[in-house]
Write a structure and sequence with these properties.
About 35% of the residues lie in helices and about 20% in strands. It is an alpha/beta fold.
Length: about 300
């Protein structure tokens, strides 16, 4: 499956559900009370110029903007998600660009940090993504991301994944999704194999359980936003929903809460080799990558 077809699927999916990731994760909490977005925000504390790679509807940018004086930018494939981001209270001068991560519309050394929430693992041509992030970061700049880490065992997400797998396997032909991203971005060793040649240090890696528990319909709404559900026909989705609600009731606590946990991996690294001197990273600045590109717009101008 080509990167072009992967990106076409993602654009179409997010045209229908532009805030799907924030809808699922904004209310989730780690044991310390922070959401996965807040954990990522805190990893780049002290960095003034921050790029959000795959910014979606702009929730993380809004959290980052609460530190005064920051220069912020976000890129995403989805114009519908970016339209939601533009409605958020972002600082004047924030740049929001409908751009590919493989071809960023920014000059060399523009940012102190780059963040990516549940997006890096969806990107094809990931070596080129690493090259571009290295190019737009200053020497020593930080890359911090959150990637999916699977179900917390014995809870509603594990139940859902089993039911979904069966639904996808038995659905009529043509209702599957393309293989998204590069599997190397889902493991520590795999990320190192991509990022270290681009000039980054080996990644720091922390697995954090995120609690998505709640009433059964709330949990269903969060889980049903996964990409695999998108192409399924209405009858298949309704059958999946009915099976999930039946199974989830057996897990429901007396207070009506369905336990649901998802692990995420929080990864951090720093650019140790300057792009102009590292052999794996392009040295030349492309004049087409300037912020004045037609695809780049400034929020709250």
């Amino acid at each position: 499956m080509t990167t072009t077809s992967q990106e076409a699927f993602l654009r179409a999916f997010h045209a229908e559900r532009p805030a799907v990731t924030a809808d699922a994760f904004a209310g989730g909490r780690a044991a310390d009370g922070r959401s996965s977005y807040e954990i990522l925000r805190d990893r780049v504390a002290g960095h003034g110029r921050v790029l959000d790679l795959g910014c979606g509807d702009g929730l993380l940018l809004e959290l980052l903007a609460r530190t005064e004086g920051r220069l912020l930018a976000g890129v995403d494939l989805s114009p519908e998600a970016l339209a939601l981001a533009r409605r958020r209270p972002l600082p004047a001068g924030t740049t929001l660009s409908e751009s590919r991560a493989q071809h960023l519309p920014f000059a060399d050394d523009t940012f102190d940090a780059c963040v990516s929430h549940m997006a890096l693992m969806l990107m094809g041509e990931v070596e080129q993504v690493a090259t571009e992030v290295a190019r737009v970061l200053r020497p020593g700049g930080m890359l911090a991301g959150v990637i999916g880490g699977g179900a917390v065992g014995g809870e509603a997400y594990e139940l859902f994944i089993g039911l979904l797998r069966n639904a996808v396997e038995t659905a009529p032909a043509g209702q599957g999704i393309p293989a998204l991203g590069d599997r190397r971005t889902r493991s520590r060793a795999g990320l190192d194999s991509v990022l270290v040649p681009a000039g980054f240090a080996p990644v720091g890696w922390e697995t954090v359980p995120i609690d998505l528990s709640g009433p059964v319909e709330q949990v269903w709404d969060a889980l049903a936003g996964v990409y695999d559900v998108g192409p399924l026909d209405a009858a298949t989705v309704e059958s999946l929903r009915a099976a999930f609600l039946t199974g989830a009731r057996k897990l429901t606590a007396p207070n009506g809460v369905v336990p649901c946990g998802m692990n995420v991996h929080v990864v951090t690294t720093n650019l140790t080799a300057h792009p102009k001197t590292h052999p794996a990273v392009s040295a030349a600045a492309n004049p087409e990558r300037c912020p004045s590109s037609p695809a780049a717009e400034t929020a709250n101008a």
